Amino acid sequence: MKEIILTVFDKDFCATIPGHEEMRVEESGVYHTVLVDGEKAGVVGYLSGAVNKEVYFIQVAITPKFRGVGLAGISEDLLAEHYKLPVLVATIETANTSSVRAHLKSGFQELPADKLAYLREKGFLKVGQTRLVKRYNHEL
Ligand SMILES: CC(C)(COP(=O)(O)OP(=O)(O)OC[C@H]1O[C@@H](n2cnc3c(N)ncnc32)[C@H](O)[C@@H]1OP(=O)(O)O)[C@@H](O)C(=O)NCCC(=O)NCCS
What we know:
Blueprint (H helix, E strand, L loop, with lengths): L3 E5 L2 H6 L13 E7 L2 E10 L7 E7 L8 H13 L3 E7 L3 H9 L3 E2 L2 H9 L7 E7 L5
Parallel strand pairs: 4-5
Antiparallel strand pairs: 1-2, 2-3, 3-4, 5-7, 6-7
This protein binds coenzyme A.
């Protein structure tokens, strides 16, 4: 892979990516298409939290052709850098092992068990989901 950039979001392209149902695409979100050497390779975006607007929930889907080379993590880093997001939060179905692995490999950390239990108890996290977080220290 040479040039990886974020460009204007293409909703129709997003709908063609197998597994795109795993991500939430909502009017209030901010999304981009990921280009690898000019080719559409995935989509990445974020949704602000309903309770705390400064919690940014990451949404990502990569086309099968470009999976397995760390593109999800690279795309998320580009998004965080572009918008100077201090923290990204990923809510992932634990059965979605590709996504859990992708996020752990790119530096996300799963919340401690007591915090996960608290979120489940409060209804912020469903059974079968986990939550991971990555913090950024952007240069001004
Ligand atoms: C989850 C997803 C975004 C990961 O993107 P990615 O750029 O392929 O991530 P990575 O390259 O870091 O690979 C992560 C894991 O995917 C799996 N993987 C590797 N190659 C793969 C391939 N060709 N096809 C499917 N999964 C593959 C591996 O388990 C890999 O972990 P490993 O390298 O430790 O073995 C991508 O699989 C996807 O778009 N899935 C459908 C949408 C989705 O689930 N989005 C996340 C919502 S939370």
